């Protein structure tokens, strides 16, 4: 990440850990229903925080490059984005397929049509094209890829035009999120819209990206506050998030609190560094993408262990902790052996070179 804002990398790691716990929190009972052992209210909203963080980072990294956008610049940008997301997506997806082939998953290979396989291979499961995903949570990475394709338009209206125009873009993002929330397609909550049979997941991602871009544009207003006030703001926002999560019946207030959170963490102040820039949070942030993709593989193993050794809370918590350790180790391996080598290989061999463009011209 340009400038390496440690607090933003660290909050991504904390967010990844939260969403792992969220997905392990509800155990599907053999008799029907669920048992909640460590439920996190509105945990699905962590994905929206990822979208906002990505929007901010894209503004930080590519604002100048997109100021005079050319086909070559955009092609290079997209190759780098594919290099960032695709290697881990592809390799980890093979493990999901192997799990289905071994009969250890609720899904079966026969469920997938040719269109499903093509859509999964091209990472289009979050675009509303009726593609059944191999990696269920990968709809978010797919929707993020779709947002990259729209980034020149989003960046033009949010960063390069006048402040009133940027305000209109922000308003449009709020309208989009409200449209998602009233769509009636949410599962865990009104904004928990992930099904690839509509464009709402992609709309959710684009709205988050737009807000992330806007945060980048206007966050320098926080620099006018003293460091003490910035530290207090970090604590105040986190306390408000916990209170809203515990007391609110709607997920929209918590969604809105992500905006000032990203803004104040982007200044990388003392409290932001202490809470999210520490070594543990930062490392989790570095490997957060692999954590996100890998963790659903293990939920069923925790559930099987729980059923086999007695359906008690102690058994499930112990099984979940073992799974958390395995997820961490495999995510480190994925980052070192798949993400980074894959990123370097794709960037080296696929990125268009200016001399090639000149020669073709």
Can you tell me about this structure?
- With 361 residues, the chain is an all-alpha fold.
- The chain has one domain.
- The chain is 69% helix and 2% strand.
- Strand 1 and strand 2 form a beta hairpin.
**Count of helix runs:** 15
Radius of gyration: 21 Å
Strand order of the largest sheet: 1-2
In the predicted model, the low-confidence regions spanning at least 5 consecutive residues are 356-361
Distance between the termini: 33 Å
Structural shape: globular
Structural class: mainly alpha
Number of strands: 2
Query: Averaged pLDDT, please?
Result: 92
- Kindly state the percentage of residues in helix: 55-70%
What order do the SSEs take from the amino end to the carboxyl end, as H and E?
A: HEEHHHHHHHHHHHHHH
Number of spatially distinct domains: 1
Largest sheet features: 2 strands, antiparallel
| Beta-strand content bin | under 5%
């Amino acid at each position: 990440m340009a400038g390496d804002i440690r607090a933003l990398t660290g909050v991504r790691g904390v967010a990844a850990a939260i969403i792992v716990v969220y997905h392990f929190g509800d155990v599907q009972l053999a008799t029907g229903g669920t048992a909640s052992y460590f439920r996190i209210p509105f945990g699905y909203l962590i994905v929206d925080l990822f979208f906002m963080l990505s929007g901010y980072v894209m503004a930080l990294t590519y604002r100048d490059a997109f100021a005079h956008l050319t086909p070559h610049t955009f092609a290079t940008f997209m190759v780098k984005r594919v290099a960032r997301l695709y290697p881990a997506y592809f390799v980890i997806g093979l493990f999901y397929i192997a799990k289905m082939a071994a009969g250890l998953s609720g899904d079966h290979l026969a469920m997938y049509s040719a269109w499903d396989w093509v859509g999964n291979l091209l990472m289009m499961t979050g675009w509303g094209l009726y593609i059944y995903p191999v990696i269920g949570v990968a709809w978010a990475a797919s929707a993020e890829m779709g947002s990259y394709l729209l980034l020149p338009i989003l960046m033009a209206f949010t960063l390069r035009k006048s402040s009133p125009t940027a305000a209109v873009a922000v308003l449009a993002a709020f309208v989009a999120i409200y449209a998602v929330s009233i769509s009636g397609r949410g599962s865990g909550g009104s904004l928990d819209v992930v099904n690839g049979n509509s464009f709402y997941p992609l709309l959710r991602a684009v709205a988050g990206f737009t807000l992330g871009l806007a945060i980048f544009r206007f966050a320098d207003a926080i620099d006018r506050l003293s460091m003490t006030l910035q530290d207090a703001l970090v604590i105040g926002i986190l306390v408000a998030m916990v209170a809203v999560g515990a007391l609110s019946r709607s997920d929209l207030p918590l969604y809105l609190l992500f905006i000032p959170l990203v803004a104040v963490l982007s200044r990388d102040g003392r409290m932001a560094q202490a809470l999210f820039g520490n070594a543990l949070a930062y490392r989790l942030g570095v490997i957060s993408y692999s954590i996100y993709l890998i963790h659903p593989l293990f939920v069923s193993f925790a559930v099987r262990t729980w059923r086999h050794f007695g359906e008690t809370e102690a058994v499930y918590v112990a099984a979940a902790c073992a799974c958390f350790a395995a997820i961490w180790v495999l995510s480190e391996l994925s980052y070192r052996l798949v993400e980074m080598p894959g990123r370097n290989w794709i960037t080296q061999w696929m990125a268009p070179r200016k001399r090639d463009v000149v020669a073709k011209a």
